[in-house]
Amino acid sequence: MLEGGSTGKYLCCPLSFTQAGGAKVDTKRQPAVSMRGITKTFGKVVANDNVSIDIYKGEILSLLGENGSGKTTLMNMLSGIYYPDSGHIYINGKEELIHSPKDALSLGIGMVHQHFKLVDVMSATENIVLGLKEGRKFDLKTVADRIREICSKYGFDLDPDQKVYDMSVSQKQTVEIVKMLYRKADILILDEPTAVLTPQETEKLFDVLRNMKKDGKAIIIITHKLNEVLEISDYVDILNKGKFIGSLKTSETNAQEMTDMMVGHAVKLNIDRPEPKDVKPKIEISGLTVIDEDGIPKLQDVSFTINSGEILGIAGISGSGQRELLESIAGLQKIESGSIKYYEESGKAVELVGTNPETIRKMGVSLSFVPEDRLGMGLVGNMDLTGNMMLRSFRMGGGLFTNRKIPHDLADEVVKALSVDTPGLSTPVRRLSGGNVQKVLVGREIASNPTVLLTAYAVRGLDINSSYVIYDLMNKQKEKGVAVVYVGEDLDVLLQLADRILVLCGGKVSGIVDGRKATKNEVGLLMTSLGGAE
Amino acid sequence: MKNKTKNGIGLHIVKRDAIPWYKAMGIRGLALLISIAVCAIVTWALTRQSPLGVMQTIFLGSFASTRRFWVMMQDLSVLLLISLAMAPAFRMRFWNIGGEGQVMIGCLATAACMINFGKSLPNGLVILISLIAAVCAGGIWGLVPAVCKAKWNTNETLFTLMMNYVAIQLCAYFIIIWESPKGSGKVGIINQKSHAGWLPTIGKYKYLLTVIVAAAITVFIFCYMNYSKHGYELAVVGESQKTAKYVGISVGKVIVRTMVLSGAICGLTGFMLVAGSDHTITTTLASGRGFTAVLVAWMAKFNPFGMIFTSFLLTFMSKGAGEVASNFNLNESFSDILTSIIIFFLIGCEFFIQYRIVRQKEAK
């Protein structure tokens, strides 16, 4: 998959690479973990193909690769969730068989998964000791003290008595990490730890990780964010389509080189932003207020305009009302007050407040929505690609029966156009990797020729290649004159892609800035305060 | 998820890819054969009777005579009809366990029409009115829990279960009102002389009509679930209500519509029981088949054609049970043991269709 000569240097095993690469070989550098010739298949899919990596004490290793490149699978084998079909695992030089997460923990290996495994109604302390057999009569107070000790040692910010349901995502993650440390893990695996964090929270996590590294722990971060790889890790191991591509010293590489290795061919790293043409108001929102079931205001007096032929970026700390805003426009949200006016081609305005998706469709408003929750809302995980395409088109045509030919053709088209990696059209979408799921969803939403395209975190969890495919698609829609809304979390992307950026803060609009002129700092400030709007 | 031997060579379980249908059927067939072998061993070990003899007797329970065959077919059809009624609701993840009550209320409605209009209206009209009444009554028994689920998100399992008792108690009440002769506590054969409201028999086959109705409903439910817009909508609602709302499917409407259909088919089954075969009403007319149907539908994974097989299996075994009990002087429970062995293997083999067990390839 890589062209011969030029990339040949990556293909050797990691240890010999560091030697051949001229890096100083520290005699103290001992691998905490060596995985050798690991192969794992799921049915016909080869998730890992003869992968060998080393993980060292007192270092942070980034495991880099696109979606579906086998990063998580490889680490799941280290943490006992899967068992390799073949290959050997050595822990501190001794060969071990890891059959379960329990085996892994007894060897000092702990993994923090992308989806946290905590009991909501229990406190941090209770979650941390849950399932431990301490033998003697145990006392939650001493446990809490030990937890405090761990926290102060590494710089965690955690209240052991806080209930999990009261916690933010970042706090839950902290509980998961402390849980592993409490169980005396020396080898810590973090699966995409920053995917759900704000920039500030990410910084805090990195500080903690550096402290843990100083303490001699071996840390592995699964990621596909290049800037983070460069910032935090000492070494980076790159996987592509289940194969080990190479190991690089982070201080001696750069984003472009890593991307090329990860993707397998050269990629350009900037986003296009065509000049908007023929800009006119498409949706005008005024005084929109949404109050949730518990009486907490989610949106307060929000007013702005979405224009056709333009990409409107929406920035904000997660939970600032982005979801409620998009769902209000899509007719899925109970609205307290305010109005959402949609301008038809003729210039006639229709009110969208008080409608639902069915009435919006019947009104002839062609609105597409890529929700944040892909498999829970946008798609049906257990249905195949054709069945999911049908979600939008199953009503077409008269009669009582569905037409499977049209969605089948559409699925085929989307798979080809967006190079969706799937065994076939009759594969349930839950079996596809995150990026491919998103391609299916975006592909379907764009296929209905919308006049308004709403997207929530369209590239969350996607690798670089897939992300650029999505940016491209949105630009194409913009050029077609579609009003595109892009709710994003990566400010760098927002500033490169959006024509205007609306910043939400605590359910209020704290500012609307020009995407071409605004700076990251300016937007960041608006995200955290009302920026003098009061 | 693992099976570790002492020397460390592990067996582990791996999820299969989708496997071709013939392979899946092969595994199921093998499971059936093994289960029969186990049945033979158990039979011999517990009773010292010849396993072959017992099995032959089980077989004769359904096939000893033409009459027995038709009785088996009638019971199979009734069980199949109720199972078919369950399938759309289950696909929608609406756990309807009220089949029993929905059937009974259909029986009651039919009996009421036959008794009240039997003398005054022409035969064809009585049948038509009974049919409509039974289907509506069953439909209402499905409607009530569905509306409450849609409006207030009540628990459908408890609700449908309690509706069973309401239906059965109503039957008990009316049986006393209609009892004949007085004091017998039974309704007796309704319109025994006039045959008013009795379904016609096709040729000399008393039960053929039920079989034909069951076959027609099988095809109908299959098409409804797999090819109709309604079927697609209910599948989406079952998988994710959020997705359904997102694409503009009215979740409440789909729940109500599906449950009315489910109840209506049960009502129809009740009609077939009273007007078609039994011509009387007792509180045990449904005889637990409303619950057995849940098992039938699940074992066939809600596939209507699969349900033909599963309902045959259960009917066949229960007929065999009675026969074994009387011929060998064994307790009736004995054939329940055999039935459960077979069900155990058939359900258990699904594991091997989903997963396979592999040994680590490398020698240590």
Q: What are the salient characteristics of this protein?
A:
heterodimer, A: 534 residues, alpha/beta, Rossmann fold, six-stranded mixed β-sheet, 20 strands, disordered N terminus, disordered C terminus, B: 364 residues, mainly alpha, ABC transporter involved in vitamin B12 uptake, BtuC, 2 domains, three-stranded antiparallel β-sheet, 13 helices, 72% helix, globular
Describe the structure in your own words.
- The complex is a heterodimer of chains A (534) and B (364).
- In chain A, the strands form four sheets. Chain A has a six-stranded mixed sheet, sandwiched between helices. Chain A has a six-stranded mixed sheet with strand order 16-17-18-13-19-20, with helices on both faces. A four-stranded antiparallel sheet of chain A has the order 2-1-4-5, covered by helices on one side.
- In chain A, helix 14 crosses helix 15, helix 14 (385-393) packs parallel to helix 16 and helix 16 packs parallel to helix 17.
- The termini of chain A are far apart.
- Chain A has 534 residues and is α/β, with parallel strands linked by helices.
- Among the domains of chain A are: 1-108 and 232-266, Rossmann fold (3-Layer(aba) Sandwich), CATH 3.40.50; 309-333 and 354-528, P-loop containing nucleotide triphosphate hydrolases (Rossmann fold, 3-Layer(aba) Sandwich), CATH 3.40.50.300.
- Helix content of chain A is 34%, strand content 25%.
- The longest helix of chain A has 16 residues, at 199-214.
- In chain A, 44% of the residues are buried.
- Chain A has helices at residues 4-7, 14-20, 71-78, 101-106, 124-129, 140-154, 169-182, 199-214, 226-232, 255-263, 322-329, 357-362, 374-378, 385-393, 405-417, 434-447, 464-479, 491-497, 520-528, and strands at 31-42, 45-56, 60-64, 86-91, 94-96, 109-112, 187-191, 218-223, 235-240, 243-249, 280-291, 297-308, 310-315, 337-343, 349-351, 367-370, 452-456, 483-487, 500-505, 508-514.
- Mean pLDDT of chain B is 89; it is low at 1-8.
- In chain B, strand 1 and strand 2 (10-15) form a beta hairpin.
- The relative contact order of chain B is 0.19.
- Chain B has 364 residues and is mainly alpha-helical.
- A three-stranded antiparallel sheet of chain B has the order 1-2-3.
- Chain B has two domains: 1-49 and 334-364, no CATH class; 68-329, Orthogonal Bundle (ABC transporter involved in vitamin B12 uptake, BtuC), CATH 1.10.3470.
- The longest helix of chain B is centred in the middle third of the chain and has 30 residues, at 123-152.
- Chain B is built from 13 helices and three strands.
- The interface between A and B is large, with 39 and 35 residues.
